[in-house]
TrEMBL record:
<protein>
    <recommendedName>
        <fullName>Integrase</fullName>
    </recommendedName>
</protein>
<comment type="function">
    <text>Site-specific tyrosine recombinase, which acts by catalyzing the cutting and rejoining of the recombining DNA molecules.</text>
</comment>
<keyword id="KW-0233">DNA recombination</keyword>
<feature type="domain" description="Tyr recombinase">
    <location>
        <begin position="111"/>
        <end position="302"/>
    </location>
</feature>
<dbReference type="InterPro" id="IPR044068">
    <property type="entry name" value="CB"/>
</dbReference>
<dbReference type="Pfam" id="PF13495">
    <property type="entry name" value="Phage_int_SAM_4"/>
</dbReference>
<feature type="domain" description="Core-binding (CB)">
    <location>
        <begin position="1"/>
        <end position="87"/>
    </location>
</feature>
<dbReference type="GO" id="GO:0006310">
    <property type="term" value="P:DNA recombination"/>
</dbReference>
<keyword id="KW-0238">DNA-binding</keyword>
<dbReference type="GO" id="GO:0003677">
    <property type="term" value="F:DNA binding"/>
</dbReference>
<keyword id="KW-0229">DNA integration</keyword>
<dbReference type="InterPro" id="IPR050090">
    <property type="entry name" value="Tyrosine_recombinase_XerCD"/>
</dbReference>
<dbReference type="InterPro" id="IPR002104">
    <property type="entry name" value="Integrase_catalytic"/>
</dbReference>
<dbReference type="InterPro" id="IPR010998">
    <property type="entry name" value="Integrase_recombinase_N"/>
</dbReference>
<comment type="similarity">
    <text>Belongs to the 'phage' integrase family.</text>
</comment>
<dbReference type="InterPro" id="IPR004107">
    <property type="entry name" value="Integrase_SAM-like_N"/>
</dbReference>
<dbReference type="Pfam" id="PF00589">
    <property type="entry name" value="Phage_integrase"/>
</dbReference>
Length: 325
């Protein structure tokens, strides 16, 4: 299909994950038309992507299949995107596109952002047993994820040529969503750890080799996202056994959120955090972390209340000094 192979790939510059998700979503809709609406698969055209069918499809997913609202909305977005493309290719399909656009996404309650507290993040960083080579690699993964606030997929795509250590400030080039590149500075402590890691793991490595890898039968290959997720969960269990509390559901994206939240609470401008995270729109960043304003406000009020409980003007010695010339 030209939409998937050319439009999403070459025009929209969508990531591999996005293309895969849209392809799956559209296949689900076609499967629904075939099995639930009794359409013959070979006879399905863009005209079957109409408001009535899509609206009934959303209702079926929500109430019959009991799918999560986010899943339903993702599949609806894929249908919208396909019909937008179709309307651009053929003016006759514009009416169907406008029809489909009138089917709105399901409202989803905004959940509080999940991130690690400082003690939890510190415990995770210390969890790897650095006496083992693979564990030293894992610790570097955790340090890299936190310092750069990259997505796991972005980190796994980093190669040696993307690391720039011989200039100041040192930085890493990240290929993000939509194949958009951004340069992220490496903090001094991270740079120190990274130098040791490169010396041990990449002394004789080609520039296009992955920064983080596993070795099978003497061959280096990319790590999988599942491997990194399992690693983090294993360290979380270890932290709990050592007496450190951990969130009930631990996943790698929380490290990215933790870094962003730490910077936000330190007063770093949202525009800088947006650049770090690679968000195309500032509203994505501000909307995502807006709830932290409440937390910051509460802490500020607490400090104000604490200062009011210790009213220095009631101290006689202080008053004597104030009244002196």
């Amino acid at each position: 299909m030209d939409y998937v192979r050319h439009y999403l790939t070459d025009i929209r510059k969508a990531s591999g994950n996005t293309i895969s998700a849209y392809r799956t979503a559209l296949n689900h809709y076609i499967g629904y038309l075939e099995k639930q609406k009794q359409y013959n698969r070979k006879d399905i055209t863009f005209k079957e992507f109409n408001r009535r069918n899509v609206k009934e499809y959303m209702n079926w997913m929500l109430n019959d299949q009991l799918l999560a609202p986010k899943t339903c909305n993702l599949r609806l977005t894929a249908v919208h995107s396909l019909m937008e493309y179709a309307s651009q290719e053929s003016f006759e399909l514009t009416a169907y596109y406008l029809e489909v656009c009138s089917v709105k996404a399901v409202k989803t309650p905004r959940k509080p952002i999940e991130y690690f507290e400082r003690t939890e993040m510190t415990a995770l960083m210390s969890a790897p047993d650095t006496r083992k080579k693979s564990e030293r690699r894992n610790q570097m993964i955790l340090i890299f994820l936190y310092d750069t606030a990259t997505r796991v997929s972005e980190m796994l795509d980093v190669t040696i040529r993307d690391i720039h250590m011989n200039i100041e400030p040192s930085y890493v080039t990240i290929c993000g969503k939509g194949r958009k590149y951004r340069n992220l500075p490496l903090m001094p402590k991270t740079k120190k750890h990274l130098k040791c890691y490169l010396h041990e793991f990449h002394e004789d490595t080609k520039p296009d080799a992955p920064l983080f890898y596993a070795t099978t039968h003497g061959e280096k290959h990319h790590l999988s996202m599942d491997t990194v997720e399992k690693m983090l969960k294993r360290y979380a269990v270890k932290c709990i056994s050592n007496g450190t509390k951990m969130p009930s559901n631990v996943y790698c994206h929380m490290i990215r959120k933790t870094r962003a939240m730490d910077l936000y609470q330190q007063g770093i401008p949202l525009t800088h955090i947006q650049q770090l995270l690679g968000h195309e729109n500032i509203s994505t960043t501000s909307g995502f972390y807006a709830f932290a304003t409440l937390d910051t406000l509460a802490k500020s009020l607490e400090k104000a209340n604490e200062s009011q409980t210790d009213k220095k003007w009631k101290d006689k010695k202080v008053m004597q000094k104030l009244y002196c010339l």
